[in-house]
Amino acid sequence: MIKRIPSLVFIFFLVVVANAQETNKMIVDATSSTAVINKNIYGHFAEHLGRCIYDGIWVGKDSKIPNINGYRTDIINALKEMKIPVLRWPGGCFADTYHWKDGIGPINERAKMMNYHWGGVVENNTFGTHEFLNLCEMLGCEPYISANVGSGSVVEMTQWIEYMNSDKDVPMANLRRQNGREKPWNVKFLGVGNESWGCGGNMTPDYYVNLLRNYSEMAGIYGQWKLQQIGCGANGADYNWTEVVMKQRPGAMSGLSLHYYTIAGPDWGNKTAATGFEKKFYFSGLEKALKINELIEKHSAIMDKYDPKKQIGLMVDEWGIWTDVEPGTEPGFLFQQNSIRDALIASLTLNSFNNHADRVKMANIAQTINVLQSVILTEGSKMVLTPTYYVFKMYAVHQDAKLLPSQLIGESYEMDGKKIPALSSSVSEDKNGNVHLTISNLNPDKDISLSVELVGKSFGKVNSASVLTAPDYNSYNSFEKPATVKPTDFRNYKITGPSTLNLTIPSKSVLVLEIM
Ligand code: AHR
6-35+404-515 belongs to which CATH class? Predict the structure, then answer.
């Protein structure tokens, strides 16, 4: 049975029903889709920081660790299975100290440099432009290059563009050929500066936007206007930055970034541990991560003023939880573990990106391996998939699917007099007509029943359903016990009518269902 109910009516109906019956209710409108969920929302970030590149991605051809031309075989397979769509490199703060010509040519002749930001180690540039772009080819993902505006120059950036993308008989393309690569890589995404308000040059927005106009014009010319240029955006709630950059932006800018890190502790000096934390930091981690909704909405409102047709994407190119480093590890390497709480942070953040797919066109969690909210951790030849990895794998069904607007009226999760919504969700329809629901229950102590009503489509059957949960609110996967937090089949659902489904969602869990 196909029903059509105008949105306002069904929202009213939903509120009345939910209040009257004190139930949790979700209504999904399958009659109108407002946006496509850009697959690049599921992107990642790899910086020359700690053990992300070396040990994480790259071990070199002579390593005893199984590798394909120097790249760890286990990592390549895991990232492919997770369907990584885009990878940002080489930083981060590192990008604004990076000079790309140091990272090309025969490996043993490459210049060394100081990694000033991260642990003060000497970077030998073994992993450079060829190694990164060839990695992206192997993974089948788009490379996103972060250009050096802080300590680089327009010349350096334009030569890099020519090196990566030109197929002509010109100096940089010929240098690339001399280094063994005939075809250009045709890089699509270029970041013009990283955190230019901070480690990327400590600029004011007015100063930065002038530089952006200059770099952007030249990137456009050298890149033959094919590159999607991403301007440096705000640090969290710095709305003035967005206002100034949007107002004076260059015409070629197709994205503006946003960085937002979740700190579970009271401030940056007291971030709290990644494991063994108290329940109050489970709550505060989720509470602070939920701020992403407000940030997206307020930055989008400013962007709407200057770009009402929504042609410029909001690119959240650094996000995730940032905790204390693991005890005994180098503080500058930012190596942290990852718990079920962090998986829930990933799920509620990805739901938010999906639900704002009209404006959010890319996002890159920080960082892929062995740094901050990583999807994979390594120790020698061992590899562990974190709870966050499984969320990305479960949510891959949303990549390039149509967003179905949904409304969720549900209970709260309360702690110490504070409240957050207990449920988070998003819904999409893929090109085969399958509907995917991702729902998380943030309450660590209570299973929650939810009734889902699909408007404009009937439930045929549930094709598949899986759930990620854990024994405790701070459980994680260690190298000794790598399977503590892993998805399993979910069966606690019942189709109760042509377009109604009832579910009981376990405490502290992330759920994905495919319905046809
Ligand atoms: O992801 C770690 C660092 O956080 C990045 O290098 C920088 O851009 C941000 O401050």
Answer: mainly beta
